[in-house]
Specification:
The structure holds 3 protein chains of 3 kinds. Chain B has 16 helices and 20 strands. Chain B is of the alpha+beta class. Chain B has a 7-stranded mixed sheet, with helices on both faces. In chain B, strands 15-14-16-13-17 form a 5-stranded mixed sheet. Chain C is elongated. The chains are: A mainly alpha, B alpha+beta, C mainly alpha. The interface between A and C is large, with 46 and 39 residues.
Amino acid sequence: MLSFVARRIVIAIPTVILISIFVFGLQKLLPGDPILAMAGEDRDPETIAFLREKYRMNDPVWVQYATWIKGVVTGDLGISLRTNQPVTELIAQKLPVTIQLALMALVFALVIGIPAGILSAVKKGTITDYIANVVALSGLSIPNFWLGIMLILLVAVKWQALPASGYVPPGEDLWLSLKTMLMPAFVLGTALAATLMRHTRSAMLGVLKSDYVRTARAKGLAERRVILKHAFRNALTPIVTLTALLFGELIAGAVLTEQIFTIPGFGKLVVDAVFNRDYAVVQGIVLVTAMGFIVMNILADAAYFVLNPRLRKQ
Amino acid sequence: MTFRKTTLLAALLSATALSAQAADFRFALESDPDILDPDQSRTFVGRIVYTALCDKLVDITPELEIVPQLATEWSWNDEGTALTMTLREGVTFHDGTPFDAEAVAANIERSQTMEESRRKSEIASITGTEVLGPHQIRIDLAQPDATLLAQLADRAGMMVSPTAAAEAGADFGLAPVCSGPYKFEERVAQDKIVLSKFAEYWNAGEFHFDTVTYLPIPDSTVRLANLQSGDVDAINRLAATDVAQVRNDPSLKVEEAVSLGYQGITFNIDNGERGDNPWGNDARLRKALELAIDRNAINQVVFEGTAPAGNQAFPPNSPWYDASLPVPERDVEAARALLAEAGYENGIDLEVQAPNTPVNLQLMQVIQSMAAEAGINISITSKEFATMLSDQTAGDFTASQVGWSGRVDPDGNIHQFMTTDAGLNDAKYSNEEVDRLLDEARVTTDMAARKESYDAAAKILNEDKPIIYLYHETWIWALDDAIEGFVPYPDGMFRLAGVTKSE
Amino acid sequence: MMAQPATPATLKPQLMTDPVLQKRPENRVWKKFRSHRSAMLGGLLVGLFVLMAVFAPILPIPDPTATDWGAVRQAPSAAHWLGTDEIGRDVLSRLVWGAQASLLAGVISVGIAVAFGVPLGILAGYFGGWTDGIISRCTEALLAVPFLILAIALAAFLGPSLTNAMIAIGLSATPVFVRLTRGQVISVKAEDFVEGAHAIGLSTPKILSRYIFPNILPPVLVQATLTIATAIIAEASLSFLGLGQQPPAPSWGSMLNTAKNFLSQAPWMAMWPGIAIFLVVLGFNLLGDGLRDALDPREH
């Protein structure tokens, strides 16, 4: 197994390098001088020239790239042009927030999606299956920013049941933290619940037709046992690997949700940074996200490998 | 029995008094401030945080008069080239460093010489300072500068602790140390800025909260929702279209103040290649566009009547407004006539760039519709603010919908836009007479003389129209009904002195 | 795989009456599709919006850009069936015309993704080796960047407009098609009939066009349909952030962007575009699902 993982890591290296070049190139392509963008209303040419020097904007492109890479390797991702805060610090502050959102959304998705998927597979072809399918697809089809705004209006303003926006760290007040995150997690989780439900359904369908399930049924085991103990366990493999990959999608999907609910997480940070032309931040985040995604991929592959003994023979 | 009752009552009273004291004030801003260093700061919302964090040498009243803050008295010499200030005694910075004339001198030097400083052009007229005593300082100027006191009422006059500044240098903004009523506790970017009461503040009695938290919430609907749900106590920049709703809510109230700034359309008169276009070359076309616009309709449709029409750099209710040039009414016929005179009786196209924010786009669409009736076909190019600013500076535009947040001193609204090669003159408008008048106005402190100069300049600008001034925004705040004592200022700042929250 | 063998003239009369032999594979697919109720519903929804978009110019609705100061933010009434927006324009009209923008955004973005992704995927899958290595690494690199963030950055680079949003979304969706096509090509390449074609000396272009291409088409079609759904939501998201279709031209996403400021005063401004997006995306999802079920040889 170790050699498998090692091989995957080696293959991932050129990908990471490509990502870094692409991410760095992106900032050079974006129009709008970042220093000028930061300038806002007051524009003193002397100060602007000095700032350009300070942030090495006048160096040739490949020098800037090399400087950045050198920093990355030593753990220094530069500083935010907007607030002078080190990017690593910003990421360390924001990542846990988005991870909390993603985890809560994942819980919603799992709790709603998997039972729905199992039910739908077992009752395939019936009206239950049909309804579940349409509901799942509806969850996928609703623009989540629209859903978010509607929910804020209803739940926070009309019913005053939950806070309208913001973030409370779990360390400070766990209950409030969960309450504040509830709506955003729900909004983010619904789309994923749909995807999860459909994948669970197709995985279960594939398994329910298989020989060992037929054998279990032939043995006279209770249907419930057949489904939960035998079928589902074996359908778990593709579901687990999918969940690992979905996690990456969650982080990405958090972008709009964080904008609407003003959650100071990763997604909001990167969107604001793009609009503010805060390059160091954009580069740092995209690089970290991309690397995280690759790590998740490798982990998912490894998990699949472990869960499915048949693959080991390869 | 009675003894116990009274002690119980006393205990209850003191308990409630204590709970009233432990009040936290939560204020929602429309965007996140940038670097919290008065010398490097560039955002409007940053100034709001400074009202609680950093004291200035002088402040203003709602009527724009200069009043003492850290400086208690001041006087000019006869030539107007030296300002002697007496400083308040018994003031310390948040880190214990005493506030004195040396500190002021150090601050002015920092603002002028620190390389990252954005305040250089604001106090460019200062040639030096001299410490006359522990609480007396003289500021020397090369020539008279009528704008100086107004500058000292803003970021250039904010005093930071010299010890902390020397230690932190350009990173001062990560942990600012000033001498205001509240000191810096913590900041999480795009989440919150938390300040706590500075017990040794010289006017501590006027400030009734233990902590102040600023929360940036960019979406105006969500910001209001936070107020309605009680998660914040007051919000900045209530959308004009939400005013009616808030007024109907008995648990909330609305406060307003007409801003010092303006919004308008700036034309490229002579900036680069694109400066050579019909709109930049012929003032008649610009006048025609102005005549096609119904400012009052804009005020109603887009701003629900909260944005008074304007046609000069100063709002109509400003003492600097030239009353002999009133806001023109819409006149489509006259507009068409002017176009025909300029040779465009069949209409003409105009490309206007605008920031891609909802209100600005709405405004431009309304104008587009109005202009179409006069034969002017406007195409709106919406850009992100960053790109728009870049393009504007580089001269890559024909017309640009852009505004200015306004300054206390009238010079701040006009000089850097209209004088030849000035820092913010993206139109590259140049008129010697205007230069002379505006330069003249900034070196005398005689209000009447200044008004004359500005009036004369206004007449020339009204003929040339490098900028079509459209309206003046109103700062609109929404507060929880429990908040008392708030005074609206035309500079848009939320000052916490005397503000209380009743339970 | 579905090719009919040539029928000798003598067998033809028998074929006409034999119920088993008569069923051509194409009929089977259509029949399955037709019986799949949700797919039909999807097709109906999509069809409705396509008709809306195509016939917008001749429908008896007011000009979507016609403003009316007196009728700002009016509730649905006889004069304006779905109400008016913040500068007095008819919401129904903007909804109908907005269908053009949203559908175009969906179709063209996916068109771009397919036009770039499928050929690259074929190259990578068929030729393997260095070609595959380079293409795959680049694809993985792009896939590692979250889709929406990539789209936002590209749209910001290109400038806010519908065309640029379509390009941004199309480019962001390309890696998915590269990966899908490559996988399909690899599995088809291993099939016997392809090896057979090699053996009899067919040229590469012929193999690609006659054997590879038709067999990778079904999953690509399914993915394309589903990606149209994603692209429409992506365009709405970009417009919501201010990066898509610019006013005064209507687009559901930008309508939502403006509407969110008037939720309590004029909820109809937000409701209808939101519902429209929901229905058209649902339609494409149902359609894609139906196609997948119909074209999947395994499911019976």
